[in-house]
Amino acid sequence: MSVIDALRASGATTKVELLADFYHLAVNGDDVSKVIRTFGSYIGHVQIADAPGRNEPGTGELPIGAWLEELTTGGYQGRVGLEYKPLSSSTESFAWLSTMA
């Protein structure tokens, strides 16, 4: 039983979820796809940035689109926080969204 399962079963709280920070998971060497597969049902919020550089998706080497697809396929319907430093204006930095369709 996971810590989250134990907390939920104890009745102390029913609303305990994980924050999946894809950028930090990746730069720390974690297997992000495995995290999604293993803990996807516990994820309550996601944050993204590409690496290296911590800029918008598509400016680095991380397969952020694939990870977001894996998460969605697993049932995630929550929000995704954009924790990147835009290389251009904020408006221009949203161009990557059109590649996620």
Overall pLDDT, averaged?
A: 90
Query: In which order are the strands of the major sheet placed?
Result: 1-2-3
β-strand number: 3
Summed up, the helix count is 4
Shape: elongated
* Percent of sequence in beta strands: 5-15%
| Rg of Cα set | 15 Å
Portion in helices: 25-40%
Low-pLDDT ranges: none
- N-to-C SSE string, H for helix and E for strand: HEHHEHE
The helix-and-strand class reads alpha/beta
Tell me the distance between the termini: 36 Å
What composes the largest sheet? 3 strands, parallel
What is the fold's blueprint, element by element?
Blueprint: H1 3-10, E1 18-21, H2 22-27, H3 32-39, E2 43-48, H4 64-73, E3 80-82
Parallel strand pairs: 1-2, 2-3
Could you write a compact summary of the structure shown?
By secondary structure, the protein is an alpha/beta fold. Helices cover about 30% and strands about 15% of the residues.
Report on the structure:
By secondary structure, the chain is α/β, with parallel strands linked by helices. It has 4 helices and 3 strands, in the order H-E-H-H-E-H-E. It has a 3-stranded parallel beta sheet. Strand 2, helix 4 and strand 3 form a beta-alpha-beta unit. The longest helix is centred in the last third of the chain and has 10 residues.
